[in-house]
């Protein structure tokens, strides 16, 4: 019979009198004996079922439990709630922290081992949870080994109650599984009260082992103080994923992942494994998106991993690259702000490239544009001769310290006949622009392209500022694309038209992408000319016939260059006017379009107009 704690029994199985679902209440800060945390863990392990450990320690203020040797592993399901201590309360503020945590675990007295504050070991510990604790100065804060369905929420790990980062020696939170499937471990949550602050550790969070999968990290402050405003970095990285699969970092609630300070310290590292989603985080800044809390190296570093997704993050202020895809394959990078905030006005560039790639088959943009701006190096660089099929599509890339897109070797690569050279992205040739003009409020771009013979390419067009740090324009505003197919000599000409004309003080640039996803560097920029006429004219000429029932013809004529205007007609101008598009019978002679109407001798009226969508 358990007598050391205030004990409630949720159920008793009459056959064998099996005790289950007990509540143990910690009543003192002693290292052992009745009412201690150590004894509660021992008794919870011995009691089958999902137990609860609560706190009711007499006295005001923070209560520190400082064991003199390692606490026992937790081997059975248990919920540990520091917020049960009288006077404690969860955080209520969405963008800061007003949690009151009054239970503090401090490992400073343990000198004979590498202790973990709380270690959930084995499948029996599955279904456990921890909330409302401050944990400092252990070797590890919280470990989960071979356990599933564990939730860690509303804790301060490595960051002390006074805001000082006293840390842990190794990981603040460690998750590993090599033999049993460890799934559905949640660190944080969507509500403010579930936010962990994990700072001042060697690594903030470390996931490892081939059986570790399908875990979630969201809504945490990793590498800051409780306010999310001051740097309290984890030494070598905020989140490290090693040989694990399908981990989601972010999602419906962002993490702040900041201020890794040690050599090579990154915001997020992905090493081996794959299938991860990094979504909606602030990496290198606070929740406002403006503070400089950059990591000492890259914002995101992915190596020897495949099929990852990096979406909708703000990645700024990092002292390395924004994103480093090193031997990364099949990573999809979309909707991110890299080097600036959502306004595009604040220079928050990463010190090196916005994105650097030495792997293959990655996609930068495409379905969703990235804004890549103010970075110290290239906007996007492909740095290996063997890195191919990296598609760079539909992004806003400008005002970077290097080229907008730079294919190895560094610097501007020249086109070659039939694109016979090899290298990064096959050193894909770029288009050559010969004219860009605004005609009837629409943009028309002409030019030529040479690459491999008999192949189809997508040409993308951009408007961009004439000024650039390298004096070589990039691609600020994505205008659209057109496809071309080269002839037997590898040549193709194009006349691309776009309904919305950019400002005439901008330049037009272009890229080319082959069917395998190899994207070129930006072309040279070309200025925009205008004919000064905003709208096309529409003329109507009456033909032969007339009188006595003889059929007459009427021809409507307008310029072929009015590409985006639609001919519409109506029989009456009385409100409400019912205009209908003319969809057939239009002839195009190259300079003029015509529509001929025969009225069959009937005295009727028809009215025409040109309409731009």
Plain-language structure description:
This protein is an all-beta fold and 613 residues long. It contains 1 helix and 52 strands. The strands form 7 sheets. The protein has a 14-stranded mixed beta sheet. It has a 12-stranded parallel beta sheet with strand order 4-6-9-12-15-18-21-24-27-30-33-36, with no helix packed on it. The model is unreliable at 1-18 (pLDDT under 50).
Question: Features of this protein?
Answer:
613 residues; mainly beta; 12-stranded parallel sheet; 1 helix; 2% helix; elongated; disordered N terminus
Offer a quick outline of the entry.
This protein has 613 residues and is mostly beta strands.
Largest pleated sheet:
14 strands, mixed
Helix fraction bin: under 10%
Number of strands: 52
Strand order within the widest beta sheet: 1-2-3-5-8-11-14-17-20-23-26-29-32-35
Estimated radius of gyration = 33 Å
Gap between N and C termini: 81 Å
Query: So how many helices?
Result: 1
Choose one word for the global shape.
Answer: elongated
| Residue windows where pLDDT falls under 50 for at least 5 positions | 1-18
Q: Report the mean per-residue pLDDT as an integer.
A: 92
Structural class by sheet pairing and helices: mainly beta
Quaternary state of the chains: single chain
Percent strand equals: 35-45%
Helix-strand blueprint:
Blueprint: E1 7-13, E2 18-26, H1 37-46, E3 51-55, E4 63-65, E5 78-81, E6 103-106, E7 116-121, E8 129-131, E9 133-136, E10 140-145, E11 151-153, E12 156-157, E13 171-176, E14 186-188, E15 197-198, E16 203-208, E17 213-218, E18 221-222, E19 237-242, E20 245-250, E21 256-257, E22 266-271, E23 277-279, E24 282-283, E25 300-306, E26 309-311, E27 314-315, E28 323-329, E29 332-334, E30 337-338, E31 355-357, E32 363-365, E33 371-373, E34 380-382, E35 391-393, E36 396-398, E37 405-407, E38 432-439, E39 442-450, E40 456-464, E41 477-485, E42 491-498, E43 507-514, E44 526-527, E45 529-530, E46 539-542, E47 553-559, E48 566-570, E49 580-581, E50 586-588, E51 592-598, E52 607-611
Parallel strand pairs: 2-3, 3-5, 4-6, 5-8, 6-9, 7-10, 8-11, 9-12, 10-13, 11-14, 12-15, 13-16, 14-17, 15-18, 16-19, 17-20, 18-21, 19-22, 20-23, 21-24, 22-25, 23-26, 24-27, 25-28, 26-29, 27-30, 28-31, 29-32, 30-33, 31-34, 32-35, 33-36, 34-37, 38-45
Antiparallel strand pairs: 1-2, 38-39, 39-42, 40-41, 40-43, 43-44, 46-47, 47-51, 48-49, 48-52, 50-51
